[in-house]
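Supplementary Methods. Inverse-folding protocol.

Structures were first reduced to a discrete structure-token string of length 458. This string, shown here, constituted the complete conditioning input.
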């Protein structure tokens, strides 16, 4: 990513853009700029028909199976997939089975580059070949991690099958084997579920968060040559959380320097932040159990976390100036670093979104809660769908609208408001597990079989 212009505070709001770059164009990794999920500056569609081609820019078949999301830089779209000669079972819906899928045939793990305007595959690279080292969940894939790009490098992470870096022309730069990286159920190690934390790229560094059964860590690698710059151990159980960059106020604010970055991480035993340059821990907070999936997000000086496992689901807003060891509030204990928390609600799969001052948190059964991002006041709690449909894809927003995609391919479109204001719903007609990307007024939906670009009339 290009250095940010020095401002009083960099936030993950709709106005976020790289210096010299228009807003709403680049979508550099999971959930776009700083995982905000927001892309402004262009009108977004509210109606389409996939089969009839209405408001469909293009449809491109994608071989194999993957739940990674599209990443976009300029006129290029990047996507990963895992391809096998055998069919890959995918079981969606609301259920609690923990048994993994045992696949013993060889796979090819691929990185694809597509033309954003036409959907044509410009190049594809085989990053790794072999039998999967770790089994996957029947609702998961062997390509869950969204690629990351900064306009110069593209990083593709496949967990046990390695971290791989290319330039935008598809030239292979380096690969790293980071070990088994088994991120399955900590209480039942035989229940392997694959790996799901996506990489991020900033200032020529690739950052990965690896919370696994043994020897969890967070690390930084040189994007040009793969040198390990630092590695910090984490006393953490398996999670699927992708890290987020946060930029506090620039010291002085007058010399044109970019503000120092922090790496913010979710977790169970170790929610917190690390210094981007050194990997040194800045603050730490314990969660409440389970296997967290949602990525932390930020709005101005608040960092938002959520989980939905026993013993207590929660949504929490932590002040970004936190230091040392902090704690979630209880009936008899408060901590000044936690601005507010709701101990009665939380998200299991989806990353929340802050849009126009409201924090939206949705459970995998479609129950959606909206909070005032600054105070924690709950504006509403309503349901998307009929309660029998699962939601894994995280929401995206822009043009005053929110988009929630169910696993069955129903897209619920809401007005961004403090009241529950559904606009309409659209159908993709295919299984959708991946969060869509948004660029220049077009929504890019990765389905079980295709990548589909949906926008208004050209």
């Amino acid at each position: 990513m290009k250095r940010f212009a020095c401002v009083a505070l960099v936030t993950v709001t709709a106005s976020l853009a790289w210096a010299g770059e228009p807003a709403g164009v680049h979508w550099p990794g999971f959930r776009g700029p700083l995982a905000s999920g927001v892309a402004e500056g262009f009108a977004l569609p509210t109606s389409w028909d996939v089969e009839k081609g209405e408001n469909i820019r293009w449809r491109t078949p994608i071989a194999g199976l993957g739940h990674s999301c599209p990443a976009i830089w300029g006129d290029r779209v990047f996507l990963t997939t895992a391809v096998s000669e055998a069919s890959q079972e995918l079981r969606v819906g609301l259920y609690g089975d923990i048994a993994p899928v045992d696949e013993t045939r060889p796979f090819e793990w691929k990185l694809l580059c597509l033309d954003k305007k036409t959907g044509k595959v410009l190049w594809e690279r085989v990053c790794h070949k072999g039998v999967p080292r770790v089994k996957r969940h029947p609702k998961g894939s062997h390509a869950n991690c969204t690629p990351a790009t900064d306009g110069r490098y593209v990083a593709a992470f496949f967990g046990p099958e390695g971290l791989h870096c290319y330039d935008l022309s598809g030239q292979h730069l380096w690969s790293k084997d980071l070990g088994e990286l088994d991120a399955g159920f900590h209480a039942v190690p035989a229940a392997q579920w694959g790996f799901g934390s996506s990489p991020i790229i900033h200032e020529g560094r690739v950052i990965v968060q690896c919370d696994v059964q043994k020897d969890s860590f967070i690390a930084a690698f040189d994007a040009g040559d793969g040198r390990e710059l630092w590695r910090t151990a984490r006393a953490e159980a398996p999670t699927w959380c992708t890290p987020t960059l946060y930029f506090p106020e620039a010291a002085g604010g007058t010399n044109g320097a970019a503000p120092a970055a922090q790496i913010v991480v979710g977790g169970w035993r170790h929610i917190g932040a690390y210094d981007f340059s050194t990997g040194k821990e800045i603050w730490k907070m314990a969660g409440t159990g389970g296997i967290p999936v949602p990525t932390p997000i930020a709005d101005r000086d608040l960092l938002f976390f959520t989980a939905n496992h026993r013993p207590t689901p929660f949504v929490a807003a932590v002040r970004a100036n936190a230091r040392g060891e902090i704690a979630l509030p209880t009936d008899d204990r408060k901590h000044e670093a936690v601005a507010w928390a709701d101990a009665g609600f939380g998200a299991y799969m989806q990353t929340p979104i802050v849009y126009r001052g409201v924090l939206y948190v949705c459970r995998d059964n479609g129950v959606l809660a909206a909070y005032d991002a600054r105070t924690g006041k709950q504006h509403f709690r309503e349901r998307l769908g009929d309660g029998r449909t699962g939601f894994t894809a995280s929401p995206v927003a822009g043009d005053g609208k929110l988009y929630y995609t169910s696993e069955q391919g129903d897209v619920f479109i809401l007005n961004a408001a403090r009241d529950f204001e559904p606009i309409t719903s659209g159908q993709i007609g295919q299984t959708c597990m991946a969060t869509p990307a948004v660029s220049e007024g077009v929504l890019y939906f990765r389905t079980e079989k295709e990548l589909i670009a949906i926008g208004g009339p050209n």
